[in-house]
């Protein structure tokens, strides 16, 4: 709490310093935390696999999404995790800057197409982490995205069934085990399922960073068990492919 107060005090005293480069940020900037130059340096994710948009191997099909639940039809990320996006995510999650969700959502909406009709479903935090942080950054992002895309947010559809370790220091295999059956979900409203004359409605997961996809896949499996017919996922940033190959438990930090 003292740390959080000091961070707030620092931002109060130096409200116009860019969190990435330390340069001046115009007081008129919508978020006041990252300068336009740093924002413009973020590299958008495009192309690759038609389902997950990961770069394809030189030969053969995509391996990145091969093991995902069939109900998870697609996953898109706005930007590659680089110096700029890493700093934004770090401040959004660990430096008590929930207002950065506004910038994150506007950046995502600038590169990602509007998803099909459905509900935005933020990936939940465990109770302990939520109490410590005071907010769920994915829910803040989902609310901002919902405003931009005209989609409702369903913040209580997905819940943590148990506490999990932070994924950042785990190998891909350990990530899978860490989040397996970590979520439970509520059934979709009747209008989400294919009925007479009604259009199928999506559950669109919202998360800050996609690394191996293990968390999104576990969340999608819980939604599928609860009866959600089709699921998509959007994230702000995506770890570069080489960063997903974590050796000997070495930490991928952001
Ligand atoms: Zn900057
Ligand atoms: Zn793929």
Strand and helix map with partners:
Elements: H1 2-13, H2 36-41, E1 72-80, H3 83-94, H4 100-111, E2 118-122, H5 127-133, H6 137-149, E3 158-160, H7 172-179, E4 183-185, E5 202-210, H8 214-225, E6 230-238
Parallel strand pairs: 1-6, 2-5, 5-6
Antiparallel strand pairs: 3-4
Helix pairs in contact: 4-6
The protein binds zinc ion (2 copies).
One zinc ion is lined by residues 49, 51-52, 54, 62, 64-65.
Brief summary of the model shown:
This protein has 254 residues and is α/β, with parallel strands linked by helices.
Report on this model:
By secondary structure, this protein is α/β, with parallel strands linked by helices. It has one domain (about 45-245): Rossmann fold, CATH 3.40.50. The protein contains 8 helices and 6 strands. The strands form 2 sheets. A 4-stranded parallel sheet has the order 1-6-5-2. Strands 3-4 form a two-stranded antiparallel ribbon. One zinc ion binds next to helix 2. One zinc ion binds near residues 20 and 23.
Keywords:
254 residues; Rossmann fold; alpha/beta; binds zinc ion; disordered C terminus
């Amino acid at each position: 709490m003292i740390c959080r107060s000091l961070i707030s005090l620092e931002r109060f005293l130096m409200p116009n310093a860019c969190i990435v480069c330390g340069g001046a940020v115009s007081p008129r900037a919508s978020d006041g935390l990252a300068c336009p130059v740093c924002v413009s340096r973020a590299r958008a994710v495009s192309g690759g696999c038609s389902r997950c948009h990961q770069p394809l191997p030189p030969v053969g099909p995509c391996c990145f999404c091969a093991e995902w639940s069939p109900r998870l039809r697609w996953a898109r990320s706005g930007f590659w995790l680089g110096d700029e996006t890493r700093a934004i995510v770090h401040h959004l999650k660990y430096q008590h800057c929930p207002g950065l969700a506004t910038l994150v959502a506007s950046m995502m909406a600038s590169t990602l197409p509007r998803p099909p009709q459905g509900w935005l479903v933020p990936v939940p935090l465990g109770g302990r982490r939520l109490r410590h942080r005071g907010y769920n950054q994915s829910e803040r992002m989902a609310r901002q995205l919902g405003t931009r895309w005209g989609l409702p947010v369903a913040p209580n559809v997905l819940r943590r069934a148990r506490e999990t370790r932070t994924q950042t220091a785990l190998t891909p295999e350990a990530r899978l085990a860490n989040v397996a059956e970590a979520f439970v979900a509520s059934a979709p409203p009747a209008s989400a399922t294919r009925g007479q004359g009604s259009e199928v409605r999506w559950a669109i997961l919202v998360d800050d960073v996609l690394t191996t996809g293990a968390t999104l896949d576990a969340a999608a499996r819980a939604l599928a068990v609860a009866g959600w017919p089709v699921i998509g996922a959007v994230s702000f940033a995506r770890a570069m492919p080489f960063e997903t190959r974590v050796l000997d438990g070495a930490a991928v930090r952001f």
